[in-house]
Description:
heterodimer, A: alpha+beta, Immunoglobulin-like, three-stranded mixed beta sheet, 8% strand, elongated, B: alpha/beta, D-Maltodextrin-Binding Protein, domain 2, six-stranded mixed beta sheet, three-stranded antiparallel beta sheet, 21 helices, 11 strands, globular, cell membrane (chain A), Ig-like_fold (chain A), transport (chain A), Alpha-glucoside transport system permease protein (chain A)
Amino acid sequence: MTTDTKPPAGATGAGRGAAPPPGGAPSPGRLRRLFGPAALFLLPALLFLAVFLAYPAVYSLVRSFFDGPGDQFVGLDNYQRMFTDDRTFTAIRNTGIWVLVAPALVTGLGLILAVLTERIRWATAFRILLFMPMAISLFASGIIFRLVYDENPDRGVVNAAIVTVHDTFRSPSEYPGARPREDGPLAADPALGGYTTADAHTPGEVVALPLVGVRPGDLPEQAAPAALPDGSPDTLQGVVWLDAALGGEVDGIDSGENGMPRITVEALDASGAVAATATTGDDGRFLLADLPEGEYTLHLAGANFAEPFNGLTWLGPSLVTPVIISAWVWIMTGFAITFIAAGLAAIPRDALEAARVDGATEWQVFRKVTVPLLGPLLLVVFVTLVINVLKIFDLVFVIAPGSVQADASVIALQMWQVSFGAGGNQGLGSALVVLLLVLVLPIMYFNIRRFRKERS
Amino acid sequence: MSTSPTPRPGAHGGTPAGAPGPRRARTRPGAGGPHRAPAVTAAALATVLAATACGGGGSASADLDAVTLEIVGPWAGAEQEAFEKVLDLFESQTGATVTYSGVGDELSTVLQTRIQGGDVPDVALIPQPGLIQTFAAEGDLVPLDDNVTAAVDENMAAAWREIGSVDGQAYGVYLKVTNKSLVWFNNDLFEETGAQTPETWDEFTQLSADLSEVGVDPLSVAGADGWVLTDWFENVYLQVAGPEKYDQLSEREIPWTDPSVQEALEVLAQVWGDETLLTGGTSGTLQTDFPTSVTNVFADDPSAAMVVGADFIGGVVSSSTNAGVGDQAQHFRFPYIAGEQDSVVVAGDAAVAMSDGEATMELLTFLASPEAAQEWAVQGGFVSPNRHLAADAYPDPLTGQVAEQIVSAGDSIRFDLSDLQPAAFGATVGDGMWQALQDFLGDTEDVEGTMERLEAEAAEAHGE
């Protein structure tokens, strides 16, 4: 058939410019003339489709009914395992969250930004800027965002910003991590926070309160060598000092050990009420005066020792999916803007003008004219994004630390993990691929129907 | 050498180590290692000459003139260059021509494809013992002949021959190995605080508590990378339960609910369960990846004093920090827990024969010899299991120590347990041992639950 490139003479004569024979079946010669060259041109494309799309899809389906090594037919076992396995379930759930949140967010943001940038002077420059993330591979973006959301404020810029703001309003404690020794006179106070002496003291005593857990070099500059006060009958005196032990004597003030300045010391009476408050001096000494006779416990307020605020664990199990979605939004918004801006440019100006002349506010123009006119386009963008989201893989793979990857997993990642990552179970992996295909099919159907409608 | 395609642990501080090839990253010290000063002392040479004299295998038969051998292995970059120098030595001794091609991470895929295509290399270098088993079971490997096994027995502890054997039949010659039983520490911090390197687990935990009291976070643990946690577990388990139980656990003769596992987990919990001992606390630890855990200890402003890990941490130190290996960065052996057992957790690459022939066996005999090990040792970034290679043959004393520990542990070396498991259990992000130990780090109270989960996952991965 492929050699038959010369059209039969009779057919040529009948066909040129003439109407088809009314009602009758086309002659075999005419069929060949119609489909011969067409088939010839279609063949390469069909071949490609068959080899690269149809065959793999069918093979995946078949493979999903076999076990890991592919030797044994297991029926629907892989599907059953897929839906009973916790990890896969998490992946399906996460993919659901992605589909619900991400495309709508990007389309909405894209619409708003496109409309807004239309009004400004440097619109093109602005749009180029917003489009730039699209030029970065998802993998590289993932690495960037892994760093952006790093928990350590010294590395992660988000936490650095949060910590800066936080510390502006609440200055960090002076001795984070300082704590008493387990067998020392102080013990953690679950009710008040901070530390309280186990023993009660009476005025006239001198109390030594050693703390550990701070590097000597991290003490404030004015810290001076610690020394026990002499004591006087009516006052409760003492010293709070850094008992740097390694290589030194445990307990007891060694030479070279410094007091801890500016720690708030409270004397609590038997009922737990604060009877007196003092602040330690540079040498760590404090003096609680004007105390009535009685027994008091000493309390070091927790605010002195609070761990520094270090921001949030963005890449922990609970926040990791929203964080990865935010990275994807950053990348894809440029894509949405470009499309929607093009659509905006095509909107007939007179429609907008007419609305404005009729006294519509800008908001009304946007809602009642711009958005409806953009409707079909927004749908195209949205559907494209949904398909894009369903196959999301690299961002999750790169951003989620190993310990939370299972919490952040999505179907495509789970599929890779199961079939190639380590498990090597391509039967189960194929089942996941089929699931992904089934999820994409309705969108495809919808898309095709819409194309048809548009054409008619 | 800086452009080695091999993924190196920690070329960049923030690069996620979960990226492709974490397994390779941990068994491979990587190119551009710290020990790049091939100054061979006269003493070292003398030792080697002596060693060669007693090293087995008649290697100097120069009758392979027309023979061409092909080797396929995972090494690339500086490692490849170093290995090719070793091969040059063989070529000059025998007249044979040997070509090496490094295929990186794709080794198993490449080998499988070539086996299917009927075009096998003569010798392959295989990092995972499991792969040796797979190939041997399918009849793709040629057993070592008597000359080679004699050379292996002469030069290495019997345990190495065992690791390279399948059903009692020897297949692999271990050439380049990794010592995973080390604790790296920041010597500046130790000097500042007056800390002494510990010998036993009690001293180790005491030191950790002491360091914490003087305001230095003692430990940096890469909890985000599951394999780091399995290495911790393996070291503790090998010390607590001993090599025999280790084998039994690995071969599933005892379950993961065995009391020995409980004991090991409880020992681990002494450290993992104490937030004051871990820099960043529990949640920070679970977010820390391997390169960061190293830079935490050796950065200019260190946030922790010690990091447990393999000899290749030295490579990360020299590539990502300003600390000098052997100077500020030093290590001691993983502490003894129950008695003084010189056991060492190791990993390594085995050379296996895929073609039968005198020349192939000759080459393997050579690779088992101390002269081959010596040739690579002086170039640095290499540790040999060869007992006839003296510690001072290495370019720096630190590497010498690493090798000496392996040699002196003799038959108490054990291959990385997670590498001996099916990948679904021993090497999957977010699954199996990795995830179970990460969960355990998050909640060290849950010893029972962790053991049950490990047992269930192991049973599933082993297809029981």
